[in-house]
Amino acid sequence: MSAFFHALSPCLAPHAGEGRERGAAKRATRGGQRPNQSRSPKGGIGTLPEWDLSDLYPGIDSPEVASDLARADAQCGAFEERYKGKLEALASGPDGGKALAAAISEFESIDDLIGRIASFASLVYSGNTTDPVRAKFFGDVQERITTSSSHLLFFSLELNKIDDGVLESAMAHPALAHYRPWIEDIRKEKPYQLEDRIEQLFHEKSVTAQGAWNRLFDDTVASLRFKIGGKTLPIEPALNLLQHKAPATRKAAATALGRTFTQHLRTFTLITNTLAKDKEISDRWRGFADIADARHLSNRVEREVVEALVEAVRAAYPRLSHRYYALKARWFGKKRLPYWDRNAPLPDVPARLIPWQEAKDTVLTAYGAFSPVMADIAERFFANRWIDAVVRAGKAPGAFSHPTVPSSHPFILVSYQGKTRDVMTLAHELGHGVHQVLAAPNGALMAPTPLTLAETASVFGEMLTFRRLLAATTNAKERKAMLASKVEDMINTVIRQIAFYTFERSVHGERRNGELTADRLCQIWLEVQRESLGPAVALKAGYESFWVYIGHFIHSPFYVYAYAFGDCLVNALYAVYEKAHDGFAERYLAMLKAGGTRHHSELLKPFGLDARDPAFWQGGLRMIEGMIDELQGMG
Q: What does the DSSP assignment read for 249-261?
């Protein structure tokens, strides 16, 4: 996938209270002005950074933005005029490999230019999605880029019309051979591509179709307000209260969330039905056999691999989530755990706010112990103000690391509130950031990594940070609390995401037979949650509407299994690391540097791992089971 398509994707946001709805890349800040002043919130967290987007553009009104938009228009039009209808002849010529490589190189350069503009607009908008000036800027850039890039649509379509033999012969030239991974990925799309004018229609209408509904979802979620304890809160702080130490506060937050979500069910039901139908139309025209096949193709993962993962995780529900929540209910002195206590801190364990500086030092030390290279790259994010950590109204909820384009660098958005999970989120997003920096030399066309592997570096960064913190903890109660928190994160990353995938499959499957009512959507949600969470969790009234705010369902259908894939993969990788440290870091960094140039089977081979083997998934799940065993032994 090219850079500007990443840049135009909406923010895939996690929400700490409800699970691990995190995103590997996407958007954010201020009407484009130069760096905001960092803010020092109450509570001893310290001064939090706000990013400086001037490495992309000085501001939304800067002449550089207008100039680059005009340059993109001109270059896209000129590129189409120069190459459309001529690629087969170009590749068949006496110096076909070199000539075709030059065309791809030019395409890549334009892609980087467009990606830079789109990234900036996306990041500006994420800084405050409720600001009409930013929203207009984001929308205008989307429209402008969609129009410009329509002149580029022919390129990949026409590449796929070149005879296999001609193309293979041309790739004997080293310049074109460099692009072989990207060309081979493009060829995988060939069975599903449509006639040129239909592709152009799909592309141009995306702004008023899928893109418009995505934006409506973002605007609606950002504008939601929740009345809790005499305060009116936006969604991120409200969800964060589900981890509050006071049971009454958690219950009040859950009640307020459910009440407000229910009040907006009509809007979210319309958005869900419309986008599910939009996807069905696209899948039908393109000829995808299964409702998730388009995502599998995008992820460069075989359907049978995903099915094996889903089957293994669902079979493990009783021995993982069901057992853990029964254990946690006992710790809380209850027969059943209300859903708002699912991620609650353990009783009798003192909670403290972790200052930003301590969070930074913790992550960098953990990264450095594994690889000084990783720590050095992660340090750049702090030193150069590539991170926005302040909690503020209108800011896109959740967290992400946006790769922007290879000619620039990533930016990270988190909303830091001083909890242990916030430290883990920082470690997660820095893992993405390190990965994106290492993969950038592959260029705009081959730096992007399929979602399944994109989550590997982030989850591995979390694991390194967790293991370091755990090793330094000698207090038995604190160790128990840390293990419990990690198990909950893993359940949210593996169990919850497969449950989400099951929910999506049911919704999209039923949508093919007509619209789903709000009641039916809520019913499906409760069915999959009961199956995954087990009998020890009481899904009380109000919880039926908690599906409405999960951005992955809207922005990237069937994205969610990538988290489970990544977590199980990291567990397997970490087991290899524990057995043999020598040379592991070098092999791991080489895997990250590969970006999107190699298939998951190739990348895992140096570690002796194979995702097609059912035992691979069982190995990842056993690590979670082992932590639950340790917790059970603690009483």
A: HHHHHHHHHHHHH
